[in-house]
């Protein structure tokens, strides 16, 4: 029977690429998006592209910042596909601003999606995986969470928190045969980074050993590896995928 992967925030960008990468590897794919609009404008098309690989795929609506909706999402996916082998916590937002200028709403909204959303999803998915005594969780952190980034105090706090939760969950779930790892991307070309001025991108590239920005596929390949049988003895790790930006 095909394995089942659930990817949050997968209607576009890195999440959509992760979904298609798993479909190419023969997984049945559950795509999560936040709203009906996202489902119509992205999620359903991603599911269709996945199905073109001969696997089953469907888009499920849930806001990961809602504990209740995450519970319903995991239940719906498990019932539809008969299990859950891999969870990829990819959904994330930015609301940038300097420390002294940042509003409470900017801080809280990023923490709610990027940090609490990962807790919510791991909470419910781990129960299914513990019963199966196997599973893989891959969380998307960021180099901003490991090294900080000016203008992103909310985002870097959330992504550092994801790294901490990854290690704690790895310790708790390891004895049940579940691995928990994180991927920390550098600068990847998606809608999230489209807003960066060209000058800033050029300056950033000069500090990247490989001399280019990352592509969603670079991240998806790392996620797929951490979910694979070849990575069965790797847990609690934060794998940086940044082209050699920070060393
Ligand atoms: P993106 O294109 O903005 O995609 C993020 C996805 O998350 C969107 O589909 C978004 O849907 C979804 N999402 C947001 N809030 C959600 C919620 N409450 N519930 C469910 N889904 C939600 O960004 P990306 O660049 O692909 O980023 C993917 C992940 O990689 C994020 O966690 C990001 O922090 C991380 N990352 C990205 C970079 C980079 O350079 N791009 C670097 C490091 C880490 P909506 O459109 O409905 O908001």
Automatic annotation (TrEMBL):
Can the keyword Transport be found in this entry's annotation? no
Molecular function in Gene Ontology: 3-oxoacyl-[acyl-carrier-protein] reductase (NADPH) activity; NAD binding
The GO biological-process annotations, alphabetized, read as: fatty acid biosynthetic process; steroid metabolic process
Provide an example Pfam family for this protein. adh_short_C2
| Residues the record lists as binding NADP(+) | 90, 155-159, 188
The positions flagged as active site in the entry are 155 (proton acceptor)
Entry's EC annotation: 1.1.1.100
Pathway in which this enzyme or protein is active: Lipid metabolism; fatty acid biosynthesis
What keywords are assigned to this protein?
Fatty acid biosynthesis, Fatty acid metabolism, Lipid biosynthesis, Lipid metabolism, NADP, Oxidoreductase, Steroid metabolism
Q: Which positions make up the signal peptide?
A: none
Uppermost EC category: oxidoreductase
Q: Which reaction does it catalyse?
A: a (3R)-hydroxyacyl-[ACP] + NADP(+) = a 3-oxoacyl-[ACP] + NADPH + H(+)
Show the SMART domains listed in the entry: PKS_KR
**Keyword hit for Lipid metabolism:** yes
Q: Which domain of life is it from?
A: Bacteria
Q: Which residues form the Ketoreductase domain?
A: 3-190
Describe the function of this protein: Catalyzes the NADPH-dependent reduction of beta-ketoacyl-ACP substrates to beta-hydroxyacyl-ACP products, the first reductive step in the elongation cycle of fatty acid biosynthesis.
What is said about its interaction partners and assembly? Homotetramer.
Question: So what family is this one in?
Answer: Belongs to the short-chain dehydrogenases/reductases (SDR) family.
What name appears for this protein in its UniProt entry? 3-oxoacyl-[acyl-carrier-protein] reductase
**Organism from which the protein derives:** [Clostridium] cellulosi
UniProt lists the gene as: fabG3
